[in-house]
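Hi everyone,

Forwarding the result from last night's run.
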Amino acid sequence: MRNVAPYASLVRRSRQFLLVAFVVAAAGVFFAIVGLGLFVIPFAVPGNQGFELYHVVRTAMFLGGGALGLFGVLLAVRAITWKTDNDLAQITAAYLSEYFDERFTLIRNVSRIGLGYIDAVLVGPPGVLVFRLVDKHGSFLNDRGKWLKLNKRNQWVPMRFNPTKDTADDVRNLRKYLASKDIQDIPVYGVVVFIPDEQHAHIQAEAPVVPVANLPHLYDALLDNYLAKPERITSDQISSVVNLLYRE
C-alpha cells in the first residue's frame, strides 16, 4: 500500500496564509495608527461643521484597524499551526499496510480549497474510504448518529463533537468535490476510527449510521461495507482520484 501526504502543497498553503496574515495585520495596524493620530492631532473640534462625521471616521479607523490587526494575528497563528502531517494517520497507515497491497493508496492530511480537511483517504478498487480519526479514551455510546460519553459520575453525556456527523460531512463534500472535477461514479464510504484499543476506548455501537471501530479491529469492520465488493472502480479511476487529492 502506498502511504503518502501532499506535504509540499500543505507547506506552500501555510506560507500563503502567513503572507495574507501579514498583509491583513499590517493594514490593520496602519488604519489604527491613522485613527489614533486623528484623535491626538484633531483636524476638527466640537462645534465645527462636519465634526460628527470626522469623529465617526476616526473612531471607525481606530477600532476597525485594531480589529483587523487582531484578525491578522489570528490568521498568522493558524498559518503557523497548519498541519503538514497527521500522527494519527501515520499510525493508521502502519496498521493498514498489513492488509492492503500496492493497488491501494492512503493519502494523509488531505486539504483542498472547496473540499476542506480530511484526516485520511484510502483509494483502491473498492472505491474511496474517508477516515475520521479519534484519539480519545473512555467509554462511548454511538446510538445511530448520536454520540455519548460516560463521565466521572457514571452518567452518559453528549460528546463535544460528533464523529458520525463529521464523517458524513466529509463523505458528502468529497463526493461533490470529485463531481466538480468531472470524476464521476466513484463510490465514497466513511469510517470512524478510535486509535486506542477497546481497553482504553470502549465503544457501544447501536445501529451506527457510519461504521465505527477501534483501530485493531478496523479491517473486520470494513468487511461488510467498503470491502464487501472487492472491485468497484477501475485503475484509471483510482489514478484520477489519487492524482487529484495528492497533487503537489
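Strands lie at 2-4, 105-112, 116-124, 127-134, 138-143, 146-150, 156-158, 188-194, 201-206, 212-214.

Cheers,
N.
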